[in-house]
Specification:
- The chain is of the alpha+beta class.
- The chain has 2 domains: about 45-165, OB fold (Dihydrolipoamide Acetyltransferase, E2P) (Beta Barrel); about 170-230, DNA Methylphosphotriester Repair Domain.
- The protein contains 6 helices and 11 strands.
- Strand 8 (about 185-190) and strand 9 (about 195) form a beta hairpin.
- Helix 3 runs parallel beside helix 4 (about 150-165).
- The longest helix has 16 residues, at about 15-30.
Amino acid sequence: MRNPFMRPPAGCPGLLAVVTVLLFGCLLFLHQPAAFAQPDVGNEGRRATVRFVPDGDTVVLASGEVVRLQGIDAPEMGKDGATNQFYAVQSRDALASLVMGKEIRVMSGTPSKDRYGRTLARLFLPLGSNVAEILVSQGYAMVYWHADVPRRIFENLLELQRDAVKGRVGMWQAVDIISKRSDTYVGNRKSKRLFTFMCDGSGQISAKNRIEFRNVEQAFDMGFAPARHCRIWPDQ
């Protein structure tokens, strides 16, 4: 077999140059860092390692920084002896299995902090996968609207959630539990929070922002998330 790096035979000018360019192009592609292969990540954000996962939507970095995943919410872990919400442990464990001990990429949102001082950010795995999208699509978290969440991100997560709700994937088994109640549900279009008719705050929703739902599944399909004090989501 002819060595491709030998002088090309007469009548084939430029062959060596072509082979050399192709060879180096292949080598550069094969050695490209996987974390930069996804266009959604690029060179933005910063690298970090997760030290601890307290629940299904929050991580603690090795630096001690607490990061709240932007645009999602997970069932609450019980604190001070309170009962865990339905699927809270599974949600926490799922997030931990994705990020613990891995170098992830943190892309801060706007604003960069929430009212508790936690960093609001999107997280990406080493190969570029969006952590929030994985959690929502597999039924470990729900979409959680805030005015500062870009609409593109919200709508993408909502599409994933609709499929998960329809299939009763993971935490969405709770829809059947909630549906057995006789509660009437109302929502605030502005905040996209869901209330029971008798819950504090439901009566203060303005007429233009008030919406009533036939059932709780319709509310989730439209991207409404339960107001925490209304205790709509069931306990474990």
